[in-house]
Amino acid sequence: MKNTILNNTIIILFASILAFSCSAPKSADDDSVKDGYLGMNVPKTFTYSTTKNIGLQLDARSIASTATVAEVYNANPHSKEGKRIGKFFISGGRTFTAALNVPSHLQEVWVVSRQTDGVTLSHQVPFFGSLATVDLSVIGEMASSIHSIGSGTPAPSCTTGCDEFVSGNGLSVTDGRTYCVPQGEVLTGDIHFSGQGGTIQVCGTMQVQNFNVNGNPSTLEILIGETGVLQASTLNINSRDALLVNHGVLQISGGLSFNYRFENYSETSLSPFNVNSNAGEFYNEGTLNVSGNFNNNNWVHNRGTINTTGSFNNNGNSELINECRIIANNDFHQNGIMEHLGYIRANNTVYIQQGGNGSSVLGNLSLISADRAFINRPLTGPTSGGYARLDIDSQIQVNGGGQVNGLIDLCVEEGQLINNGSIKNTVTFCEAFIPANECNPGSGSTPGDEDDGGDPGDDEFPDDPDRFFNNPFPADGVFGTLAYEDLWPSYGDFDMNDLVVGYHINEVTNQDNEIVDIEFTCVIRALGAGLDSGFGVEFPVSPSRVQMVEGVRYTENIIETLPNGAEANQSNATVIFWDNSAYEMGKFVNTENPMDHVQEDTLMIRITFNPPVTRDELGNAPYKPFIFVDNNRGLEVHLPGNAPTSLMDQSFFGLHDDDSDPSQNRFFVSRSNLNWAINIPETIPYPLERVEITDAYLNFREWAESGGEVYQDWYLDLPGYRVPSKLYIRP
Is 586 a domain residue? Predict the structure, then answer.
């Protein structure tokens, strides 16, 4: 019996050692692991940062409006990828520089500016260094998810760049030459494009019966100047590479069906009008009058006015970007991709019925009006700022597959609203105000704004004069990932899952763009360790600036706080969010078998500052997050390069594998510059237990060894980037 008890005890002890071995330190002298994480050759100055700080100078000096609100997005705000990352108030023709922390691989941002006079402009802003500037008074390029718009083709002068001046009867266009019809001259007869083709500039009059294209000319351009007139029976030049540009008068008695790019900057009347599939592109800054139906089978970008006596049909597999006005005397059919930023009027019915690859997105302060609206698929409004509105005379019907999402105002003042689908709780009913401008007649009554005098469509706290905007990090609706190894100052197993925390941060700012509150949503996702841990964040301001802390969880009698909730005995404001990561979930959870998944533990913490803090004072999110280990408040683990708090026991520095040196501002890296923590500005799956991150993320090593110069997007779900079988991915 005694031997049996002894043997069982040995077995249990051995099993316990095996269970804890997943967090056991590796020796830097162990040659068997030199090819793994410990074998990396990382530059000594590299801090494993996956983000970069940029300054975005928002210039409103040319705007006469009393105030401008600028929203910053990480991609096209009217695509599903575009997420808001900041929102700022710029008063009275001034310039404001917004400090942003963005993913290192991001190469551009988008800015949507709204003025108090109702003008909304979009700006695509690339950055090549640490500072980018955007003039908020300049109309930005609203690139779609498929096409790049470009800046348009200017009107020809017909006096320069001409190889030959022509008039009379007939013309053969060849050899890539440019032929000009000067003002006052007339060219008649048939036009032949052959060989290399060429360009015709029209500043006089062209009266043509037929256009003939022989072969496949490399250049086929017709440019009509401001004084030019082109009259034709037909225009059959359906070369995919052709270009038709009208700044004057264009009259085609047989209508136009085209498979090339057509740019209109003047007034044109045609029937029928078909933008053909595959290569047809119509860009409009003028007025197009269509007798009959307008059929878009590929791509249309409207910044002017389109009038049609029939229906406007945005057919399947097509894309429509409307920044100004579309008027259809009959119906408006939306079956493709639509980004609507201006005004649409259908005298009969609007149908939202896009196919599987379609999407219907409404921008801030956009308006759709019709007699009836049938919403058979998702209709998505803005996520913040001003509402979009549907003004419908008799009936709105949301059918089974229909959804109304985001900030959309549905208004049927005298008719009927039938909901057989889904209308989200962000939707309002006959409440929104859409200001009038040169494209949009506007709708609704001007609301009062007794809060702070800003645009009522932009203030996100209309009942609170001290708060104005929400500023999300990493982006609106996006959670970042903090992952820690907890055996510092010794090496761990580098699976980066001893503690995995998902986080979303919202900075609430006032009208001076100062930070009043910081709201953290923290999700404890995984605990792949046997040691206890707590989690906190340090802010580089005095503890006295903290007015209040809400939502923290203390269960272990470790943390001493000031009356305001900040941690006591700290030189900088430090807030411990929780002191026991395993309180709800237990230890060794969510790192082995996703089929045994344990529900994540979510905490919401709010920190209020008084007086509010500036961005220069606070720095960028996620600030300085850290853990402390084994119920020892002095044993902190920080992101590489981050200094410890005042309560850190600095006798740990330099022990075992650590190479911290406070005199060199070097913290929490090893002698070979390896790390114990990392921040990712996105939710990612973490490695399974005992799987090194370099084995699960195939480009991590090359990224680290290059000092972050290559594979800055190493954590994204792209081909060849991940090994799914080595990651904790829930089915």
Answer: yes
**% of the chain beyond a pLDDT of 70:** 89
pTM value is 0.61
Is 122 strand, coil or helix? strand
Q: Which residue bears the tokens 């070097």? A: 666
Judge contact between 699 and 506, C-beta under 8 A: no
Ramachandran region, residue 730 (left: φ > 0; alpha: ψ -120 to 50; beta: rest): beta
Q: Is residue 294 part of a domain?
A: yes
End-to-end CA distance of the chain: 46
DSSP state of 375: E
- Tell me whether residue 330 is in a domain: yes
Residues 298 and 320 in one domain: no
CA 533 to mean position of chain CA atoms = 34
What is the rounded CA–CA span in Å between residue 373 and residue 395?
Answer: 6
304 and 324 within one domain: no
With respect to residue 46, please indicate whether it lies within any of the assigned structural domains. Answer: no
Helix (H, G, I), strand (E, B) or coil at 104: coil
Residue 614 shares a structural domain with residue 665? yes
CA distance 719 to 713: 12
pLDDT tens profile 611-662: 999 999 999 999 999 999 999 999 999 999 999 999 999 999 999 999 999 9
Domain boundary among 310, 345, 379: 310
Ranked by mean pLDDT, which of 79-93, 441-455, 463-477 comes out on top? 463-477
CB 445: neighbour CB atoms within 10 A? 9
Within this chain, do residues 268 and 341 fall inside the same structural domain, yes or no?
no
Q: Which two tokens stand for residue 634?
A: 């002095």
Q: Which two tokens stand for residue 216?
A: 């496949």
Q: Are strands 416-419 and 256-258 parallel, antiparallel or unpaired?
A: unpaired
Q: Which two tokens stand for residue 45?
A: 């100055």
**CATH number for position 107:** 2.60.40.10
Same domain flag for 59 and 182? no
For residue 332, what are the contacts with CB-CB under 8 A and spacing of at least 6?
Answer: 311, 312, 314, 326, 344, 346, 349, 350, 351, 368, 370
Question: What domain range includes position 499?
Answer: 469-726
> Do residues 353 and 334 lie in contact, with contact meaning Cβ atoms separated by under 8 Å?
yes
Do residue 302 and residue 318 come from a single domain? no
Determine contact, residues 443/428, Cβ cutoff 8 Å.
no
Peptide bond into 156 cis (omega under 30): no
Tens-place pLDDT, residues 348-400? 999 998 665 788 999 989 999 999 999 999 999 987 667 899 999 999 999 98
SS3 526: strand
Q: How many domains does the chain have?
A: 4
Q: Which of 362, 323, 334 is nearest to 440 (CA)?
A: 323
| 667 within 8 A of 639, measured Cβ to Cβ | no
652 token code pair: 């740990």
Per-position b or e across 262-273, b if 16+ CB within 10 A of its CB: bbbbbebebbbb
